[in-house]
Design goal:
Order of helices and strands: HEHEHEEHEHHEHE
CATH topology: Rossmann fold
Structural class: alpha/beta
Number of helices: 7
Pfam families: MetW (PF07021)
Oligomer: single chain
Shape: globular
Number of strands: 7
Protein name: Methionine biosynthesis protein MetW
Distance between the termini: 41 Å
CATH architecture: 3-Layer(aba) Sandwich
CATH superfamily: Vaccinia Virus protein VP39
Strand content: 15-25%
Radius of gyration: 16 Å
InterPro entries: Methionine_synth_MetW (IPR010743)
């Protein structure tokens, strides 16, 4: 019997071909790699939180405790087919360097990130409050998020690192593809999922 996973993780798994070697950065409890294992993928998770590392080990997921900001040089060039960075880019100190390392480690990447310009977030700002939503569920004083971005701000960063956008999937607050698709995505999408490839 299959486990139940977040809707956006199912989308990520759909983007990764069967049998791929996957590196999951900021892997959390290992759900993404468990889901990918169901389609014959092999992988390694990376997380710095001891609670997440223990959860991965208990689930039988291979995991390494490393700092994404400083220790991705531990992985060789093109040592994986795909790198996944799900809802994690906004939490690292050096997002540009993390993305650069991802492009070195694998040609293909899947990245998802909350959209700070989502209409509900804009309304909260207009009301004088910092945004809170399902994708940004923390108070300003306890959030792990260090960087906030809109989609028009995020996408040039990919291109500046020679990471081409093959597909953008705007997501609703539940993590499903937004019914409007790419129409007014920066206003309508709570977050967005990207399939990228690094130019060689």
């Amino acid at each position: 019997m299959s486990l139940q996973f977040r809707a956006d993780l199912t989308l990520i798994a759909d983007l990764v071909p069967e049998g791929s070697r996957v590196l999951d950065l900021g892997c959390g409890n290992g759900d993404t790699l468990q889901l990918l294992a169901e389609k014959g993928c092999t992988g390694v998770g990376v997380d710095l939180d001891p609670v997440n590392v223990l959860a991965c080990l208990r689930a039988g997921v291979d995991v390494i405790e490393l700092d994404l900001d400083t220790q991705l040089t531990e992985f060789g060039d093109d040592s994986f087919d795909f790198v996944v960075l799900s809802r994690t880019l906004q939490t690292v100190h050096r997002p540009r360097e993390v993305l650069r390392e991802m492009g070195r480690i694998a040609v293909h990447s899947v990245v998802s990130m909350p959209n700070f310009a989502y209409w509900r977030n804009r309304l909260r700002l207009l009301g004088g409050h910092m945004p809170m939503s399902k994708d940004l569920p923390y108070h300003w004083y306890d959030t792990p998020n260090l960087h906030h971005s809109s989609l028009p701000d995020l996408e040039p960063l990919f291109r500046s690192l020679e990471m081409e956008i093959d597909r953008r999937i705007p997501l609703d607050a539940e993590g499903h593809p937004h019914r409007l698709g790419n129409l007014a995505a920066n206003w309508a999408a709570s977050s967005s999922l990207y399939l990228l490839h690094a130019r060689r």
